[in-house]
Amino acid sequence: MPFRIAVIPGDGIGPEVIAQGMRVLNAVTADSGSALEFVNYDLGAERYLRTGEILPDAVFSELRASDAIYLGAVGDPRVDNPQYAAGLLLRLRFELDLWVNLRPSRLLAPGLTPLRDAESIDLIVVRENTEGAYVGIGGQFKRGTADEIAIQEDINTRKGVERIQRYAFELAGQRHKAGHRGRLTMVDKSNALYHAHDLWQRVFVSERERFPEIEAEHLFVDAAAMQLVKDPGRFDVVVTTNMFGDILSDLASELVGGLGQAPSANINPQTRRGLFEPVHGSAPKHAGKGIANPVGAILAGAMMLRYLGDAVGADQIEAAVMASARERRTTRDLGGSLTTTAAADAILNALAMREFKSSSAS
To answer: Residue 250 catalytic?
Structure first.
């Protein structure tokens, strides 16, 4: 039976890049043997402005039953409801318990990094995805007055911290076997956030004892940010909190060429549910101009294929993307001059070359 993929094109440039991602997925799965059934869902700003609905419960039940969700982006300046994005994207993350957020950053071609001496960058940020400051617990008192108070709670549970660190240690081991360094870096701010992040410290000590074969280190978040810029090659797997993971992964993406080519996966390893999306957001000022970079969405599709068990197809997509990037057959943000559609065409042309299919399957 085919995998049922719920497609939410979303807002801004989301529909443009997701359309190209689906073209690439259809092309590669025609050869790799995977079968994908795409089911489009009318969710996003247009529906909200038309009906006032964000994510109806009946639609949520259908999304829960899908094998994966392929999301474009959420965010539209016409929507002034601060609960809109939370009601769609964060509801999916929290209520589907997609507690792992994976954000790989890989230098696709020399010259794309703004760093002077970096020749190879290949790391992945493992971000805790259902706790921290993003759970929305807090409030405001005397809003709009000179005495206003605003409180946002940072939630960290032992269950949540243990499972994300354990997942990161296991991932480091898998990457080491695949030829990567396999080094794990745990990032927190326990010297200032000494209640919440003391928990991260104690769990780190415990998990490091469980995985003595894994090279592991701890860095405070400010030191980690500095080291990412100074020596990104020292990092392989970075595990950290929801907020710090959001920030550090964006920094890492910029170091390899920008958010336009950055994919991400939101997964639950136990239930096998997953939501896959580009990192760049809806970028409404670029919508409809044919200039959006489709690579983030295309690589998110590759992550989805790999999660569904089609490593061959995922490898083919990644090889084709890198070939196009090396030859600057890209949109302007990666040094090329192609439109959104033409950039996807270049990747499809690379996919059609036999050497990518044979090398990825070997």
So the answer is: yes
